[in-house]
Amino acid sequence: MRIALSGSGIVLASNSASRKAMLEAVDIAFEVCPAQVDERTIEAEMEGADAAEIAQALAAAKAAAVTADVPVLGSDSLVEVDGRRFDKPGSREDAAAHLQFFSGKTMTLHSAAALAVDGRIVWVGHDFARLRVRELSADFIKAYLDAEWPAVSYCVGVFRIEGPGPQLFKSIAGDQFTVLGMPLLQVLSALRDHGVLPQ
Fold it and tell me: Does 109 fall in a domain?
C-alpha cells in the first residue's frame, strides 16, 4: 500500500501509543500505517544473533514494508533477561510467567528504529536501558495484571512506564525515550539528516 501525505512528514509503521505520543510531543507530522511483518520468522532466521541486532532487523523490516511518498519510520523493542529474549506476552498466563521470571533480575530493554525512503533503508539506530526488577510476589503480580491486562499485552516487558509500570522496578538506567520504546533523539537526528526536519 502506498501512503500519500500532504506536505512534509513521515509515516510511522507502528500503532504503538507511546511512539505516537513521542512524535506528537516533538511536533512531527505523521500518519500511522502499521507494518505487516512476520516478526517470529525474522527472529527464527536470526537465531544466535544478539537482541540488539534482532531489534534493528525488525525495525528495518517494518520500515521497508510500507511504501510511501515520504520517509517511513519503523521501530521495535526487545527485552532480554538472563540471556533469554522476551517478546510481547501472548496471554495473561504468559504475562504472569514473564513477570515471575523477571522478579529480582535485571532486564535489558533494546529499542531500535529505522528510516526507509522509497523502500530503501537509509538509517538504523539502537539504544538500550537496564531496568532492575524488584522481587515480585504472586499477590502483586495478580493485582498488577488485574489492573493492567490487556493493556500490557501490547508491551514488551509487560509494563507501561507511563502507567503503573514503574512499580515493577528498583532502578532504571537509560534514556527515557528508549524505555518508552524508541531512541527518539537518534530518530530526530536521522530526520534532520534526511531533510524531514530543519538542521
Answer: yes
pLDDT at residue 87, as a whole number: 87
CATH of the domain at 172: 3.90.950.10
Q: Indicate the number of domains in the chain.
A: 1
Residue with cell 533480575: 105
| Residue tagged active-site, from 50, 76, 118, 127 | 76
Give CA angle at 144 (87, 135), nearest 5°: 80
Instruction: Single out the residue of 41, 196, 193 nearest to residue 125, CA to CA.
Output: 193
Strand partners, 107: 81, 131
35: containing domain: 2-193
Note the pLDDT tens digit of each residue in 143-189: 999 999 999 999 999 999 999 999 999 999 999 999 999 999 999 99
Active site residue 76: yes
Q: Output the nine-digit C-alpha cell for 165.
A: 509500570
Answer whether residue 92 is part of any domain.
Answer: yes
In this predicted structure, the answer to whether residue 122 has a pLDDT above a threshold of 90 is: yes
User: What is the rounded CA–CA span in Å between residue 34 and residue 11?
Assistant: 9
